[in-house]
């Protein structure tokens, strides 16, 4: 019985080693965020390039067209409407396993959208207050923690939670940037 | 144990995804100060039981705004608001230090122009008159018993010596808050009168 157990353990370890080796040889990954798509009508795509020493780099691109956020913006509950983000990032794997691991991420952000303000306009001796919508862009940075697992050597499920701050144009842009997602990916 | 970790991460992800990343507030909203007394009342100090205390408004849609040139169009700014609302309170002295709000039924209010509801304060609405392009309000409050009374306008406002009128309009349009001075109030924002 003991021999069978030991044999099974060795077999499992061998299989894991084979799987880890197969994943390590694949250096590129594309992902799509299903959480943002479902909850926020946001298209969020990511690319990640795996480097040596547990590091990886990548970029995340978002485009948002949320009906609820647009309504909130029109009804005056917010004065900005984030539309797009380009988030380059660097990650470090916190676990030894290549198939299931936690990671830490720092990211930069170039983001933009619409900004609304109330202005006074004079015309022929009378004046009115009216809303003026303009575009904003800003730069930000932040950090995340996440967990990633692979299935069949190539398919990835990734959970990500983090946030950051804009710092160049916060009179118009949102103060905070959230970076949260449940991503499905393919590594090759 | 691992499953718990996964569930925890998913829950945190959902919680964060529901965070409002935009700055909260209400932004279809602006406040102005005008120099004109938009709301008035007759400063009679002695009334008789059965009399009415009338609060009035009859102001043009075009108003001079403090610190600005050109008359502000209150009607166009608000996407053609048909009403401006304000509030006031009538209290009766109970003893040396205490006052209580006077409650009457809405049907007892003498509504001549505009509309009003009475609860812990009178909620008055000036109505737009498109003929002469003014907002109008004229409502009498019945004085039903003898005693010392006081009138104030600071219930829904940050200021005690001015009245705040707020436009009632579509939320997609600008809501305009107007601070207008009031006459005959003391330093604490009260007008005192007696009912004999």
TrEMBL record, chain A:
Keyword annotations of the record: Signal
Record's superkingdom? Bacteria
Q: Which InterPro entries match?
A: Autotransporte_beta_dom_sf, DUF3575
Tell me yes or no: is Signal among this UniProt entry's keywords: yes
- The signal peptide, as residue positions, is 1-17
This chain belongs to the protein called Uncharacterized protein DUF3575
- Record organism: Flavobacterium dankookense
Task: Print the organism lineage.
Answer: Bacteria, Pseudomonadati, Bacteroidota, Flavobacteriia, Flavobacteriales
From TrEMBL, chain B:
UniProt keyword list: Signal
- Top-level lineage group: Bacteria
Would you indicate the residue range of the signal peptide?
1-21
Entry protein name: DUF4082 domain-containing protein
- Which species? Flavobacterium dankookense
* The organism's taxonomic lineage, starting at the top: Bacteria, Pseudomonadati, Bacteroidota, Flavobacteriia, Flavobacteriales
């Amino acid at each position: 019985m003991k021999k069978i157990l030991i044999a099974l353990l060795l077999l499992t370890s061998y299989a894991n080693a084979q799987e880890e080796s197969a994943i390590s040889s694949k250096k590129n990954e594309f992902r799509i965020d299903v959480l943002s798509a479902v909850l926020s009508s946001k298209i969020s795509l990511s690319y990640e390039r795996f480097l040596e020493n547990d590091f990886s780099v990548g970029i995340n691109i978002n485009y948002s067209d949320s009906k609820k956020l647009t309504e909130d913006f029109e009804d005056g509950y917010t004065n900005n409407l984030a539309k797009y983000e380009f988030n380059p990032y660097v990650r470090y794997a916190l676990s030894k396993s290549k198939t299931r691991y936690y990671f830490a991420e720092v990211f930069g952000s170039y983001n933009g959208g619409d900004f609304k303000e109330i202005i006074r306009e004079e015309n022929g001796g009378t004046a009115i207050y009216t809303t003026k919508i303009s575009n904003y862009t800003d730069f930000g940075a932040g950090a995340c923690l996440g967990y990633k697992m692979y299935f069949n050597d190539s398919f990835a499920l990734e959970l990500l939670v983090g946030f950051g701050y804009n710092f160049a144009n916060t009179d118009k842009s949102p103060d905070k940037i959230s970076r949260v997602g449940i991503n499905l990916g393919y590594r090759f | 144990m691992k499953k718990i970790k996964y569930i925890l991460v998913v829950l945190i992800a959902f919680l964060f995804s529901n965070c409002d990343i935009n700055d909260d507030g209400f932004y279809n909203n602006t406040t102005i100060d005008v120099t004109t007394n938009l709301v008035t009342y007759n400063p009679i100090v002695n009334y008789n039981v059965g009399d009415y205390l009338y609060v009035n408004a009859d102001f043009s849609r075009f108003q001079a705004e403090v610190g600005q040139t050109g008359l502000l169009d209150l009607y166009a700014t608000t996407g053609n608001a048909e009403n401006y609302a304000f509030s006031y309170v009538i209290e009766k002295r109970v003893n040396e230090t205490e006052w209580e709000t006077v409650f009457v039924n809405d049907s007892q209010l003498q509504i001549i122009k505009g509309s009003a509801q009475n609860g812990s304060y009178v909620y008055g609405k000036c109505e737009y008159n498109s003929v002469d392009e003014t907002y109008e309000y004229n409502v009498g409050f019945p004085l039903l018993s003898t005693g010392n009374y006081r009138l104030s306008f600071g219930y829904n406002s940050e200021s005690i010596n001015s009245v705040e009128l707020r436009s009632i309009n579509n939320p997609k349009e600008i809501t305009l808050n107007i601070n207008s001075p009031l006459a005959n109030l003391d330093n604490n924002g009260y007008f005192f009168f007696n009912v004999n």
